[in-house]
Amino acid sequence: MTLMIRQPLPLLDNDILRTFVAIAETGSFTSAADRVFRTPSAVSMQIKKLEEQLSATLFLRDARSVTLTESGETLLPYARRMLALSNEAVGRFRMPEMKGVVRLGAPDDIGERFMPTILRRFAEVYPAIMVDLTVDTSGQLRRRLQEQRLDLTLVNCAPGMVSHDGEVIHTEQLVWAGAKCGTAHLRDPLPVSIWEDGCCWRADALSRLDRDKRPYRIAYLSAHTMAQRAAVIADLAVAPLPRSYLTDDMTALGSKQGLPDLGTFEVRLLTGPETSETIRAVADSVRFAFSEMIGIAA
Known about the structure:
- The chain is flat and about 80 Å long.
- A hairpin with a 4-residue loop joins strand 1 and strand 2.
- The model has no long low-confidence stretch (mean pLDDT 85).
- It has two domains: 14-94, Arc Repressor Mutant, subunit A; 97-298, 3-Layer(aba) Sandwich (D-Maltodextrin-Binding Protein, domain 2).
- The protein is built from ten helices and eleven strands.
- By secondary structure, the protein is of the alpha/beta class.
């Protein structure tokens, strides 16, 4: 009887898997290289080695984007699980005391756009710390922090708002968002999609329309940015939104379209009176991840 001797399967390198996940998340070899602190050529060599090990093509590349192939989509959940298990094992030895629950707040727009990635990356570094996320308006989040129902929170501060508390971690242009090639901004009165009372952008945007004597009507009222975006994309209304929130089917409107300038707004990080090591770890991760993702989205 002849036994077939098979070569052992190759072992996947976590460092290469980390690069693979970074490309999948950013959709760019260059952005992924910045994230993993390597050159683009080194990143390309890593992916070439991984594709040779698996005998599969993992990415489809063209001049504008990088997307996963079917094989890449199959590998991605395995890669994330392997990296998570590796981080958990290392954290057990290097940061055994870093555990517990941290209560973090975020406005709706930040919660939708950035928090999934921020939370996932934080869990990779601090697997024993659970982040309890609350999404609400900036005003309500401030109240929760004062009542010690949150440990730290992100808040939006409108243009001209007198506020010296917290730490400014981002400043961004606020624009009127309209549908690409849309006509909502030409209607009279102007249909506006806006947040419910308590949003820091609402009063400023409406006061600027009043100042310019531009007739308007509140066409859609919601506390969720997804609803605001839906009304804009359907060309039913315009809405004040951060410039980075605009997608390919939206456009920024301004003075050329007869709309007032909205200026900039700030994102501030506020912390409560008690700042433990775990809370500081969350704050540091939010600062880093937020600034990195804003750079990618810009």
